[in-house]
Amino acid sequence: MSSSSPAPSFWHRPMVARRADEQHRASTMLELFFDLCFVAAVAQAASAFEHELASGRIGHGVLGYAMVFFAIWWAWMNFTWFASAYDTDDVPYRLLTLVQITGALVLAAGAADALEHEDFTVITWGYVIMRLAMVTQWLRAARSDPGRRRTCLNYAAGIFLVQIGWVVRLALPGSLGLVTFAVLVLAEIAVPALAERKTTTTWHPHHIAERYGLFTLIVLGESITADTGAVRTALDTHAELGDLAALVVGGVLTVFALWWLYFAQHAPQLLTSLRTALLWGYGHYFVFASAAAVGAGLALNVAHTAGHGHISDRTAAAAYTVPVAVFITLVRLLHHRSASPGRAANVLHPAAVLAVLAATFTPSPILTTGIITALLIATTLLLTARDAAARESDGSGEPAS
């Protein structure tokens, strides 16, 4: 804080909207700490998902994982967009964010029970703690930002009403669990669209893109953890070293390629309206969930190779190849306007997805997937260089066809 600033400003600052074109906007240390605490929730969900698959409860595991990951993703996403518009970094803001972090830790503690035993008690209370803290933040913003007061109050009211629904859901019969979950999810995702219908908040495109990129690193980290586990398994068990080496090499190639694929895009230029921002932001549920599932699938294949679990080779392989295919597909769909090389990628990416799915039926699906994804990146780079050379030669600014 500058020495010329009044001392009380650290304790309480008006929560006025930040500028959407603010220069050099970057993630704060508090946002990074917030993300760090979500690592635990992602790890718990991925581990429980892997356990369900290893037990042969495929459908139950996929459904439970989708439900648990929604709670993780939605709570993280709402904080991210709010902070992009109203981060004051004063004492009340920090304390309310720490309350949200506490809720995230409670949510992480309940993730396994929710996924494996359909006991959503702990995870619901953790989620509600986070969301009620967000209601308080929106009320602060409504008080300090008259121009967007109605938007902020709509957010606060909508979030609060849906939280009542989540608490009531705990008392309802188990037979209504899936239906009520779906209804409440629809209510949650409707709140931003309805709240910002007339006046939008001043979220920062570059800041949002950076925040999503950081969470992508978190979920891709599950694959790195699984690779480390494969090495540990090779040292601790009598599993075939060659088989585990193929898993490690394939897993490393895949996660490197998925990282490259995601960060080759230029997301800020896409975030130009509320509609595109909602589609881009909501679509990342599948990007994040599939990335974390890749790590769970790799861990499952390591355990399967070591002789653990009760599933077939094809099921174990599909648990890895399907999330990889989903990730490639969604990244391409969400970023196609900012991606290069133009038309060639319209064929290249679908071909890579089909090849990854076909790798399920190969003798070494993880290694094959790693090679395919690495070739996807290499081919994309070559085509990009070709298009750049073509543009330079013809003097146009448009990609060559």
Annotation keywords:
401 residues, single chain, mainly alpha, 0% strand
Question: Would you kindly provide a written description of the structure presented here, covering whatever features stand out?
Answer:
It is built from 12 helices and no strands. With 401 residues, the protein is mainly alpha-helical. The protein has helices at residues 29-54, 58-86, 91-117, 121-144, 149-169, 177-195, 205-236, 241-263, 274-305, 313-335, 342-358, 365-394. The longest helix is centred in the middle third of the chain and has 32 residues, at 205-236. The chain is globular and about 65 Å long.
Secondary structure layout plus pairing:
Elements: H1 29-54, H2 58-86, H3 91-117, H4 121-144, H5 149-169, H6 177-195, H7 205-236, H8 241-263, H9 274-305, H10 313-335, H11 342-358, H12 365-394
Helix pairs in contact: 1-2, 1-3, 1-7, 1-9, 2-3, 2-4, 2-9, 3-4, 4-5, 5-6, 7-8, 7-9, 8-9, 8-10, 8-12, 9-10, 10-11, 11-12
